[in-house]
Structure formats: C-alpha cells, structure tokens
Amino acid sequence: MKEIIVKYLEGRASATEQMQLLKWLRKKENRIVYNSSRLVWKKSQNENALPKGSEQSWLTIQDQMLQKSFKRWQYSDKVNQLVRIAAIFFFVLSLGGGAYFISNQDKQEPNWYTQVEAENGQISKVKLPDGSLVWLNSGSKIAYNNGFADNNREVRLDGEAYFQVTKDEQLSFVVSSGDIQVKVHGTRFNVSAYPESENIDVVLESGKVQLLSSEVSSFQCFLSPGERASFVKANNQLNISKVNTIKYTSWKDGMLNIYNQPLVEVLKRLEKRYNQEFEFAEELKDFHFTFTIKNEPLDEIIQIMEKIAPIKTKQEKNVIVFKLDQKKIRELSR
Fold first, then answer.
1. What are the TM regions of this chain, as residue ranges (predicted)?
2. Handedness of CA 283, 285, 289, 292 (dihedral sign)
3. What are 255-278's pLDDT values in tens digits?
4. Using one digit for the tens of pLDDT, what is the confidence trace for 81-90?
5. Class of domain 255-333
6. Are strands 277-280 and 319-324 parallel, antiparallel or unpaired?
C-alpha cells in the first residue's frame, strides 16, 4: 500500500489504485499510516523541485481531493449498503408475501360442485352431507359445493324438490332458486321453481322458513306451516295463502295431485312425469283440471282428461296433440 500512497502523492496512481487506497483508508489506523507516509514522502522531496508555496498548495489540493473522494466513496458505500439492505428487506418481504400467498393458496381450496339430477319420468332421493334429505321431482337438479356442511349449507335448485332439513342453529340451510332464497335451520318444505314456470312456489309443511330476495336486500317474508308463497316472476309479486300441503308434496310418494290447474300447467307436469312431449290448441290452454295420479299409465290419464273436458287427442309421431272436440261441444250445448 506504501507504493500506492507514493504513486498517489506523486499523481501517478491509476483509478484502480486510487480505489484501493480509498477502501484501505476506511480504517482509522490506516489513515494514521497514510499521514505518516505522507510526511515521510514530503521530507524526501527535493526542496527545489517545486517553487516556494507550490508544494503546500499541491498537498492541500491532494488532501481536498482525497477527502471529497473519501466522502463520495462513503456516500456510495452507504447507498450500496442501503441498496443491499433494501434488497434483503424486499427479499424477506417477498419471502413472507410468498409464504403468505402460498399458505393462503393452501387454505383457499377452489370450489367444486356436486350435482344431483332427476331426469324426466324419474324421482330421485338424495342424502346431503349434513344428513338432510332431498326428493327431486322429474326434470329437476340440485348443486352444492365442497364446503357444504363445513362452512355453508347452500343448495342451488333448478326444478322442484322437497327438503327435509336436519336442524343446525349455527349453520343456516339456504335454497337458492332464481330470485328467491329460502333460509331455514331445520324443517320440511317444498320448492317448485322450474325455469319455464311463471311462478316460484314454496310450501311449508312444518317449522319455519324465511324468504329472501337475491335482488332486493330489504325483502324478507316468513311462512308458517300450511302456507304457500307464490312468487310471480313477471311482476315480482308475492302471494301467500293457506293450502292443503299434501297436494303439493305428495309427488315425492309417487302421487301427482292436479288441483284446478289450467291445461298448460297440467301438460308441463305430465311431460316431466311421463317424459312425453305435448302440443295443444290455443283455445284449450285455460281449460282447468282436477285429478290425482298415482301409478296409472299415461294413456289412462289422457282418457280421463278426454271424459271430463271437450278435448280429443291424436298421436303425431312422438308428440301427443290436444285439440278441441267440436262434437262434444255441440252435445253439451243441446
């Protein structure tokens, strides 16, 4: 280092050697050595080498340059240290963030759904993970996610289902169907919500249910046993009436109760029950029917309908067509 000091004092040190000197001067004991070397070098110089006063000026300039370089180096070194500290800090943060992200990734298991479906002409019965029982009418399906019974008891219904819900005061059982949600804790009720139907009907057999709207947060309505809530999709009107619940729930036992329903609704139910396509003349759609079906074949049901109303049917390929029977109308008018 003494050689570099001499080179530096004589103005011959390269940039690399100057950097070596600056780093070396970081330590206090090295700066003492440097000053001592500088005094030795000064004495060794020919007093006539420089004009009087020039030597001191040269040393002063050198000291000033050295101090500035040292300060710049200290500053740059601090900046480098800060950069290194910041890098370590952000690296730790990124590790922490990564660990947090990874740990939360582990916790946030993606939702997947289980779907149960009853095809047309069939009635299905399913036991949910919380022990609740669900009967699915023909052409209906339900879906629930993998968190069911752990952090929720939410079911999506498309069609008609009868629910016998296991009681759980901590975890509400919620059936979502269109704009209506049915919230319960433990009870038996029926929900009919076929997409093609004009209404969503809820019939409460026992216990208590709360009706909510997915669109209007302030909406809520409570039903008592024996009540039927009929939500009209077209105008969002809710009608509540007292009913004989067995007429709306006996389908799960294989019985189909048709009570004062227009032909258009009767054929929708028969279509699902017997998996048969129907068509009808427009003037027949408001003909009302009342009868009960248990295990009768479809042709017997159609014969009964032809006896109690002025209608006749015809098989056209795979479709049964209902038409107005003019002959019966003339007989009735006599």
1. 82-102
2. positive
3. 888 888 899 989 988 998 888 999
4. 554 544 444 4
5. alpha beta
6. parallel
